[in-house]
Specification:
Blueprint: H1 2-9, H2 18-25, E1 31-33, H3 38-48, E2 52-56, E3 62-67, H4 68-76, H5 87-90, E4 98-99, H6 104-114, E5 118-123, E6 126-132, H7 133-162
Helix pairs in contact: 1-6
Length: 163
């Protein structure tokens, strides 16, 4: 596993990084304080049409991620009350972390091996944003389309030269 990560850490020419993905996503707005209730969090997620919130402590530092999955697994299925349960009680805090320079391949490996849907990105100890499994799927689709266009262009060039 460690050898795989080291191999994937070396960036190939043209390979995008966590920094590139976060820049493309733009500023994140989906924050909630750790002491808010789950009911408040779910209401915000519904209003903003989002599936997760970044949980901040009293000093606005990253603490974890609250998601729809946390809600269903740790509130609904455990019979807790949304109005009485704090986000900090059920948020995910043990997620794998990424750095700004991590390649998309490494990000995919991290998210797959951790079986997570969200990957916090840090620059040293400074939180920079979240990369989701959907962000990585979009990256893979873009790479596929780019590869397909390159292949189509190469096929056309080959056909021109052989006919």
């Amino acid at each position: 596993m460690k050898a795989q990560l080291n191999l994937l850490q070396s960036k190939l020419p043209g390979m995008r990084t966590a920094k590139d993905i976060l820049q493309q996503k733009g500023a994140q707005f989906n924050f909630i304080k750790f002491d808010k209730t789950v009911l408040e969090a779910i209401g915000l997620m519904k209003t903003e049409n989002i599936s997760y919130l970044i949980v901040l402590d009293k000093n606005d530092k990253y603490m974890g991620v609250f998601s729809e999955r946390d809600y269903t697994h740790k509130v609904i299925l455990e019979g807790k009350q949304s109005a009485n349960t704090k986000v900090s009680e059920i948020m995910a805090t043990n997620l794998a972390n990424a750095s700004l320079d991590d390649s998309t391949s490494k990000l995919m490996l991290l998210i797959n091996n951790s079986k997570a849907r969200y990957l916090p990105v840090f620059d040293g100890n400074t939180f920079k944003g979240i990369i989701t499994i959907h962000d990585l799927m979009r990256e893979a689709m873009a790479d596929y389309e780019k590869g397909k266009k390159n292949l189509d262009a190469n096929e056309m060039e080959f056909l021109k030269n052989t006919c």
